Amino acid sequence: MPAVTLPVEPRAIVNDSVVNDIERVVQADVGRNIGALCEAARGGLWRAASAIGGAPRGRVGLITGFFVPSGSPPAAETDGPVGTALLARGLGAVGIPCRLATDEPCRNACAVALSAAGAGVPVDWVAVGAPLDGLIQTWRAAGISHAVSIERCGRSADGTPRNMRGIDISADTAALDQLFAAGPWQTIGVGDGGNELGMGALPRALIARHVEHGETIACVTPANHLIVAGVSHWGAYALLGALAVVRPDWRQNLLACLDEALDRQILEATLRDGPAVDGVSRVQAPTIDNFDLAFHHRIMRTVRTLAEGVHEP
Fold first, then answer.
1. Percentage of the chain exceeding pLDDT 70
2. Sign of the four-CA dihedral 142, 256, 78, 291
3. Against a cut of 0.85, is the pTM above it?
4. pLDDT tens profile 154-175
5. How far is CA 142 from CA 3, 58, 82, 173, 289, in A?
6. Is residue 119 part of a domain?
7. Which range of residues forms the domain containing residue 82?
8. Is residue 5 domain-resident?
9. In the chain, how many domains are there?
10. Is 175 helix (H, G, I), strand (E, B) or coil?
11. ∠ CA(285), CA(192), CA(189), 5° rounding?
12. Can the peptide bond before residue 184 be classed as cis, meaning omega within 30 degrees of 0?
C-alpha cells in the first residue's frame, strides 16, 4: 500500500540531513551483506519519524518477538523485545500511548522487557495458529495510528515464516503479518536480514541476490516505511534519535532513553526472566546478534551525539 504523508512541523524539515546521517550509522553491515537492501530502503527512517512525529494524536502499536526453537533454552531472541521496550519507554515519555502485540511463545520475554524498561504498555498476545480477528479489533478500538514492527519474522512467498537459516518456524510463530497489514494504521518495519515484517517493501529478487537463503526467507509483507539496520536493535536507537530531531519539543525525553544503563537493564532482565537467547549463538548470553552491549552502545552514542547536535534555525 502507498505511504501516507502526514503533516510535519516545518522547522523539522530542515533537519532531514541529520536523520539521514543517523540512518547511515545504523545501517553499518555486520556481515549479512545487506548493503544493497540498505540503499534500496534509504530515507525510510526520515519518513517513519516524520509520520509518527507529524501525527496530531498518535497511538503506536508495537510488534516484536522472534522465537528460536533451537535455542538453549528455546526462547524469544534478545533482538526485538529489548529495543522495542526502549522505544516504548521513549514514546510513553512524550505522551504517545502504546500497546505491544506478540505471540504466546514470546509473550513473557516481551512483558519482562517492558517491565524492565518501566514502560506501562499493555501486551496483546495470541496463541500460534489462533485467529487474529479479536486482536485486530482491539487495535482498531484503541485507535492505533502507526504499527511498528521490530525484528518480527514475517511470511515468505509460500506463506511460511523462516529464520535466517531457512528453517520453517511456523510451529512457534503466529501470523502477525495479518495484524500488521490490517490497518487503518501506517506501518513501519525494522529488520536486518530480509525475513522480517516490512521487508516486502523491497523486491524479493533483491533480497535473493544479496542475502544467504534470500530467495527462500524473504518476507513478502510490506511496510509503508522500511528501516533496514545492521542489527534490528539499532532501529530502536534510530527511531528515538530521529524523533528527537523532528520533534524538538520531545528531544530531551527521547534522548534520555538512549541510555546505556537502561538498555543493559532491559537486556539482562529479559535474558534472565523472559527467558531470552541470542538469536545468532542461540544461547542465554548477554548479547544481541552475538555482539555484546559495548559494541551496540558505540552505535547508540553516535546516534545520540548526532541528535544532540541539532541546532534550530
1. 94
2. positive
3. yes
4. 999 999 999 999 999 999 999 9
5. 22, 11, 24, 24, 33
6. yes
7. 10-308
8. no
9. 1
10. coil
11. 115
12. yes
